[in-house]
Amino acid sequence: MFYINYNEFFGFFFYYFIFCTILFFSVLKFVNWINSKQLFIIVGTLFLFTAAFRGVGIDKDYATYQYSFSLVSSPIQYFINYTDWSNFEPFYYIIPSILKFISFPFYEQSLFFIFAFVAIAAKFFGIYKLSRIDGLSLLVYFSFFFFLHEMTQIRVGIAAGGLLIATYFYYNNKFALFFLVLILSTFFQYTGILIGLILLLNKHRFNVVINLSLLIASFLCILLKVNVISELLFVVKLPFTDKLMLTLKTLTKKENELNAFNIPLVLSFLITIWLFLNHKKIIIQNQYGYLLLKIQVISFICFGLFSSIAVIAFRLYEFFGIVSIITTTFLIYTTRYKLIGYFAVCLYSLLLMVNLLHITKLVAPYKFIFFQD
Predict the structure, then answer these.
(1) Phi, psi for residue 336 in degrees, rounded to 5
(2) Phi first, then psi: what are they for 364, rounded to 5°?
(3) pLDDT per position as a tens digit, 201-224
(4) What is the pTM of this model?
(5) Does 1 fall in a domain?
(6) In which domain, by residue range, is 331 found?
(7) What's the DSSP call for residue 368?
């Protein structure tokens, strides 16, 4: 007998409803019925309440955050007994400890709200400044990175938003603000220190041969199982090394297995090659194009160099790959018929979300915390 789990059905329906809502308001913005600020306010409010008030168990990291939030003591303890709290990034400890110290109401939910607000605001600022097709950038953002960051890896989500902001400041030579964003991002998640790699990039020139070679070489590293960087990471003591080793010990061999040729990764690789070949069309439409494409190259290089440790490979690939919420929309600039480009971005976003929800199953069907049993 055919059986429908209505809780599961409506939980997944909610995600697709948000997807369609973003698409709807993007069309309204395209025909000038609403402006960019109105679009960001509407979508941002929907994102914030979805991430902040998700139910327990919707994502795999929820219980870990609950446990971490329960451990913190007074703010001063972080500095007095730093060795005991070194696995906590400064803001990951200090913000919860302040709320706990003043007995802030709805302690856990308030923290999820604060972290979600900072992450979403950072990414929205980056999209607003860097994207010329912000509605579709929001769609790409929601279809993958919203679930990955704001619904799961909330601190990485803030650091990734910082990467977008720092990219804007670097391009416009606002170095004081660039370093401020780098420091703040690192205080939320140690991965943020890698934002400094952007300083090595030439923002005005793009050599297609060199960048294509680096892109292809990254996959060769996977095939040849290059692990020099991975081994070096455990020799050189870094702030996150101990935390990483603890994480790796809890993973099974299957969980740390690298699936380099999953559909989203292969599609992203092919899209990136296509964008490289059409880089001259892109830079005419978006002045940040070269810089963003080079950051995307870094994401693939990291994936290749750290391929022997899947948890690092994917984390760094996804961190630098945050720029794809903007670069994916560059497809529109590369086609003669713009409607084909718009359709391609929408279809790609939908495929990302379907894969994430029903194949990798990163998150469970949605439930609001208020209506959970």
Answers:
(1) -70, -40
(2) -90, 170
(3) 999 999 999 999 998 888 787 777
(4) 0.91
(5) no
(6) 7-371
(7) B
